Amino acid sequence: MLDQLLPQLVNGLTLGVIYAMIAVGYTMVYGVIELINFAHGEIYMFGAFFCVMFISVFGVPFYLAIVLSMSCCAIMGILLDIVAYRPLRNAPRLAALITAIGMSIFLQNLAMVIWGSRPLPFVQDAVPAYLNETAFSMGEVYLTWLQVFIFAVTIAMMFGLFFIITYTKIGTAMRALAQNKTAAALMGINVNFVISFTFALGSAFGAMAGILVSVYYNTLYPTMGYMAGVKAFAAAVLGGIGSVPGAMLGGLVLGVAEALGAGYVSSLYRDGVAYAVMIAVILFKPSGLLGKSVVDKA
Amino acid sequence: MQRKLFFVFLIAALAYPLMPLSSDYVLHVMTLIMVYMVLAMGLNIVPGFCGLLDLGYVGFFGIGAYTSGLLTVHYGMSFWLIVPLAAANGAMWGVLLGAPTLRLTGDYFAIVTFGFSELVVLFLTNEIWLTRGPLGLPGIEPVSLDLSFLNPDWFWYFDGEPPYFYLAIFLVAAVYFLLKRVEDSRLGRAWFAIREDPMAAASCGVNILNYKVIAFAISAAIGAVGGSFYARWYLFLSPDMFKFWESFLVLCMVVLGGLGNLRGALFGAVIMVSMGEVLREILPALGLPPEVRFLVYGLLMVLIMRFKPAGFFPAIASSGKTNPMLVALEKRICETHGGASGSDS
Q1: In the A/B pair of chains, how many CB contacts fall below 8 A?
Q2: pTM for this structure?
Q3: Considering only CB atoms, which chain B residues are within 8 Å of A258?
Q4: pLDDT by residue (tens digit) across B128-143?
């Protein structure tokens, strides 16, 4: 029993950092415009597909393809905001939520039209060979270079994000907007630009997560964003929506809980862990682990 | 004029199964439309009347369908007994889910309902001892009407589409009538008040949480009734039928017709189901999988929210203007203030 613990833990942490990457996108957007961007999971999926497309169609090397795909998704995020959400900024919340759901379904099916509904393998030839080799082994536990790469990239990006939010001017503007949009606008902050920037940043993180997942599991399909989006949202809620460190922590906790739950309780309800965690947090501690207390705006 | 037209259509619909050229396919689609009409009217209560987004409506549909299917398969219960049981089961889950979550903001509520419906699907898929899981639940008895205690000959099996067609018409009419009455009652007015301004409603003595839970329970019960009919009509159930897509489809119907409008919900059901049938034929011809029809639905939702947020039967915006008393009052105000006041913005 116990010898399973460490491999499950490693597996869970790998999943967890990826959930955290997606969750920061949800949480940042929610912090700034108080909208659950349901289409974020689809951006994650498009990230994986763009990357494969760059590699297989244009023959771009792996690492460059990642960067290009992230940029494309950042632009996509900005367009999503401008086309779908900006016109409804002052509309009732119900309208914006329905639009978000509509965009999510639309983008998912758009991918299905473009790339077909069958799962594709990731272009393995393009992935540097050493990524699949074992980096460390400790008894039963193997850590491939790919996993090391995932951890390194996510940790680096999280520190980058932390730096942007805490020390740069635009990060300060984001935090100001999250506190009070009107006051921020009165201080001369270009609200729409900051919102676009937030979408771009969140979408780039989502795209990176999508690429890492599709390399890790060697598969990508148009509906992959659905499940991942839900789980990342659960992670964001768990950490306290609107809080970036909370999203990171929530992702890790959820990933580990899911891996351990699948390993020790029942693998049938693997996906149920996320829903159960989400509902439990919302019921008992809606502010999440690290969030500020939620003011009821219903 | 509109009334006359409505009755002409109604009589045409009622007479259709008796026509010599009536096709089973058309009857099937019309019955399906009516199942969705029931669902759309039921869902309409929560986002339409109370202004809360419910993304897990299909969960209650599934609960009703499986309640009906399992009670039929295991206990051979009569349909007429099952309908109230399924409704009660749906309402119970509605209260259990709604009571703790409805105090939260609308966004959280949307997510909780979504999670709930996904958990329902997971339960139906994994608890094989009860539901047979992904194999589905075949062999459900069709509806029968047993009046043999009145006359030994009065016993009918529902064979083929026409009897179900009439039963569905009855169901739609019953739900429509019920909700129409509720809409004009104290309950309905409380819901509208909550939708328009929760704070004002609360300060006028409306217990917001109670009224929301009642709305959610009624909506869930109607969904379960729809499900119990669906199980006894389709005669086969599988967890795949109750995925998120269905919730989205029903939401589309409500949004298309206009949130908070019963007739809009009926209209939405007709349009969406017919469109689904047409696209199901067209898409494979274009070499696309039939699921792609959701591309159209998604786009439709976004466009409606952008350009026609009240749907095609806007009830909310115009209700104040069609009331003759309000119109007269507005006119008087305009005259006294020199037309400067725009009372509705």
Answers
A1: 138
A2: 0.84
A3: none
A4: 888 887 888 887 877 7
